[in-house]
Amino acid sequence: MYRLLSYPISQNSAVWPGGKKVACQQIHHVEDGSEWNEWMYTLTNHLGTHYDAPNHHYNAGLKISDLPLERFVFEKPYILDIPKGPNEKITKDDLVPFAEKIQQCDALFLRTGFFKHHHEPELYCENGPGVGSDAAEYLVKHFLNLKVIVLDFLSLNAYSDIPDGMKAHKWLLGEWTDHFICIIEDAHFEDIENETLEKVIALPLLIEELDSAQVTVMAFEKNGE
Questions:
Q1: 187 in helix, strand or coil?
Q2: What SS3 class is residue 99?
Q3: Within 10 Å of residue 199's Cβ, how many Cβ atoms?
Q4: Strand boundaries in the chain, DSSP class E
């Protein structure tokens, strides 16, 4: 069974406070006599479910099109439930009890439950949870098999504490270590569990020069009905 973990992109997609929304314009219409329908769309590369490569916060880091293909395939995904409310952060103390599980995975899904507020823009975008810099440092230093973390909220960076969020990005994306962990933000994995989760593929738009890009995240479930 296949399951889509990315949100569809629309003109109502959640955006970082002050960010630009999707703009769509149809430029060819079959009903007006054209041989084809065609659209032009404009969107920032950090809108919707997207994949942050190291270059996002680390200028010498790899860009999205420079990453090897194995960075998009995850054979040992693991979902970790850490409930968080508005403006709360995932900390190192939240992660330490699960160190053995994290050590065995290559993709760590951090499920806070905040996805339930996805259709409440002010709360979801301006008061969402984040990942603390202490947690980011802990992950990148201790889990060398970990290739990506996946979040069920808008951004690694809690809007309520931007400086610490910037620091968390830098830790994960490899500015201060030889290892880096990529980040998938604003994903949707409400009703998927470790017992059936078998494999995940996350394919971003491979646009040269970009630090990050929208990504289609697909899970493979065993024994799914």
A1: strand
A2: helix
A3: 15
A4: 2-4, 23-28, 38-42, 50-52, 73-74, 77-81, 89-90, 107-111, 130-131, 148-151, 182-185, 197-204, 212-221
Burial class (CB in 10 A: 0-12, 13-18, 19+), 163: exposed
C-alpha 95/C-alpha 139 separation (Å) is: 9
What backbone phi and psi angles, to 5 degrees, belong to 23?
-120, 125
Alpha-carbon gap, residue 213 to 6, rounded angstroms: 13
Please report which confidence band the pLDDT of residue 223 belongs to, taking 50, 70 and 90 as the band edges: confident
The residue to which tokens 């929208």 are assigned = 214
pLDDT tens-digit readout, 143-176: 999 999 999 999 999 999 999 999 999 999 999 9
Using an 8 Å Cβ cutoff, are 186 and 14 in contact?
yes
What residues have CB less than 8 Å from 162, skipping those under 6 apart?
A: none
- Whether 139 and 170 have beta carbons less than 8 Å apart is answered as no
CA proximity to 168, closest of 185, 152, 144, 189:
185
